[in-house]
Design brief:
5-stranded mixed sheet, alpha/beta
């Protein structure tokens, strides 16, 4: 427990002296010294210079050994796969992207190959190989049904529906693989380093080419029996065509049915005659219509789960910014009795990739930072 506490402090704060680690953990100097010696021998920490400018001998600074493990994070979209490789500190050391239309006939049977190509590109940039990876986390639309092993709620990703997909991916990557819903990962990114820090009850509403939500209650991500919790793109709303048969359209010129047909990027652009999102949402009439539609859908979610916070994320939220947030807040206050805080995502870069990376790091650290395995070996 002391080892893990010290390692977590080094992850959170960066390099620290033995004295500072002792102060933060409450350990005595001799115990802190023994701990650091043990972690250094295990290859989990290293010295990285000394602190000068104070009375007495210069104190050694300790940091996490970055090469103790590496992880891969991937985000799957309708036009390609993005991959990052990071060391155990979270520093990204390699990145790659493979362009591929998800619905193209020649792509359907090459899913594992395309994933491997994306990861291989990131590994090559980092000067690493498959043997250096501890795990990989992949963010995709839809959700993996834990009972069947099949990806559900993502008809636009036909190449990802094989029940042997997890095993196929683990084989080509040479490491364990986790597939997680992309919006869930975006929500976890917000909890780690974004707008949902310090919140245990919140909803992230994803507004992009597709529409979805991630629901976190009591600090726990709500998944549902088949992984479909938060698939609000299919949610029926007044005036919206029904998304019958569970197949929301994904064509460039079709916004599908249900809530998605009202507030997706395709739907918002259609309101402005096909104009770019930022230009469309700069139109007061379009902004008001989108805010009304968004508020109606969010009110339905709020009435059921009563979150403390709703985070708006995705390309529509980023294009609308504070003006959209304020307009939705005004509309929502008249529709929902609970009145949650409303924020725009402030994650830099791709929140799905960020969430996948954070999830992979949490998984790797739980295993690599468990020093009881060394005690057992002795």
């Amino acid at each position: 427990m002391n080892d893990r506490a010290a390692l977590d402090l080094l992850v959170a704060h960066g390099p620290l002296t033995r004295t500072r680690i002792g102060e933060l953990t409450g350990l005595s100097k001799p115990t802190a010294s023994q701990l650091l010696n043990r972690l250094e021998a295990a290859g989990l920490v290293r010295t990285t210079g000394r602190v000068s400018g104070r009375p007495g001998p210069n104190a050694a600074l300790y940091e996490i050994e970055p090469t103790a493990a590496h992880v891969a994070a991937l985000a799957v979209g309708h036009t390609g796969i993005s991959a990052q490789v990071a060391d155990i500190t979270g520093t990204v050391v390699g990145a790659s992207r493979v362009e591929a239309e998800a619905v193209a006939e020649d792509v359907r049977g090459r899913t594992a190959q395309l994933v491997a190509e994306a990861v291989d590109g990131a590994l090559a940039e980092a000067g690493l190989g498959h043997g250096d990876l501890h795990c990989a986390v992949i963010g995709t639309p839809g959700s993996l049904d834990r009972a069947t092993g099949e990806l559900r709620y993502a008809p636009h990703l036909p190449g990802w529906h094989s029940r042997t997909l997890l095993g196929d991916l683990a084989e080509v990557l040479g490491t364990p693989v986790v597939i997680e819903n992309d919006v869930n990962l975006a929500a976890l990114a917000e909890q780690d380093e974004g707008a949902a820090q310090d919140f245990d009850d919140y909803v992230l509403t994803w507004l992009d080419r597709g529409v979805g939500a991630a629901i976190v209650l009591g600090g726990t991500l709500l998944r549902g029996a088949t992984g479909g919790a938060g698939e609000i793109g299919y949610m029926p709303l007044p005036g919206a065509p029904l998304a019958r048969g569970g197949s929301a359209a994904w064509a460039e010129d079709d916004a599908g049915g249900g809530f998605q047909s009202q507030v997706s990027a395709v739907a918002v652009r259609a309101l402005a005659g096909g104009a770019p999102l930022a230009e469309a949402l700069a139109d007061p009439a379009v902004l008001k219509t989108v805010a009304e539609r968004l508020a109606t859908g969010i009110a339905a979610v709020v009435a059921v789960v009563d979150p403390e916070l709703v985070v708006l994320s995705g390309s529509v939220a980023q294009a609308g910014g504070e003006a959209l947030r304020a307009a939705v807040h005004e509309e929502l206050s008249g529709l929902a009795l609970p009145r949650p805080l409303l924020r725009i995502s402030d994650i830099d870069g791709d929140p799905i990739l960020t969430g996948a990376l954070r999830t992979a790091l949490h998984q790797a650290r739980d295993a690599v930072f468990d020093t009881s395995r060394f005690d057992t070996a002795r």
